[in-house]
Design brief:
The chain is an alpha/beta fold. It contains six helices and seven strands. The chain has a seven-stranded mixed sheet with strand order 3-2-1-4-6-5-7, with helices on both faces. The two termini are about 30 Å apart.
């Protein structure tokens, strides 16, 4: 199976290491520079770099990568974060579980070292709401290590930042798409080396709003039951 990996990046000091890790396995690599202060520069000719002139959000970066993957003829693509949390050696686990019109989530092994307590709480909170909205028993709805079908481009997605990764799961499920998980190993650097652009106030508010909207659509408007 030919594999395409999309890496959205915004001001990550580790992007060169992530690129090197992915290229070690011979995957087609699309890096989407989402308006970083210093533009991502890649020396090898095999890596495709797309550049947003300003920061548009992780969701927009993933969609830009999806459009390029489709243009290249791929039916699906893998997303990896640019902070070294996801490792390319685990990509094969995700692609092996992929079937048509399925989102595969890399469910992170949180027994790894240095996993923040906030990440553990956030995952439980997110899982509770997404499981209500999709009627599925998912364990890591916050993981950005995923395989997406190109068909997500057909969804009426409105969110473009971290809330995108919740909305895409639920709307994909509403439309009859499947979601499966496989456990993967992950790496969390010590707190002094950690990079995160998640705003605990703004992004948690955005997540709460998208959950409220999806919950209402599911249970009061019967979306995913009587209509997509």
């Amino acid at each position: 199976m030919s594999v395409c990996v999309v890496v959205p990046v915004y001001n990550s000091p580790y992007i060169s290491e992530v690129i090197k890790d992915v290229k070690r396995y011979g995957y087609t690599l699309i890096v989407v520079d989402d308006g970083s202060d210093s533009r991502v520069e890649v020396k090898d000719d095999d890596t495709i770099v797309l550049t947003h002139p300003k920061n548009l959000g992780k969701g927009e970066a993933i969609l830009s990568g999806a459009k390029k993957a489709k243009e290249l003829g791929f039916k699906s693509f893998v997303t990896m974060d640019a902070d070294k949390q996801h490792v390319a050696s685990e990509v094969e686990k995700l692609t092996a579980a992929y079937k048509e019109n399925t989102i595969v989530i890399g469910s992170r092994n949180f027994n790894a070292k240095n996993v923040p307590k906030s990440s553990k709480f956030g995952r439980k909170f997110s899982n509770f709401w997404v499981n209500l909205e999709t009627f599925k028993n998912l364990k890591d709805t916050q993981s950005g290590f995923r395989v997406y079908p190109i068909s997500i481009l057909d969804l009426n997605l409105k969110k473009r930042r971290f809330d995108f990764e919740i909305e895409v799961l639920v709307l994909h499920s509403f439309g009859g798409g499947d979601i499966v998980e496989v456990e993967v190993e992950c790496y969390y650097p010590p707190i002094s080396q950690r990079v995160s652009h998640f705003d605990k106030v703004k992004d948690n508010f955005r997540l709460s709003m998208v959950h409220s909207r999806l919950f209402i659509q599911r249970f009061f408007l019967l979306r995913g039951i009587l209509w997509n």
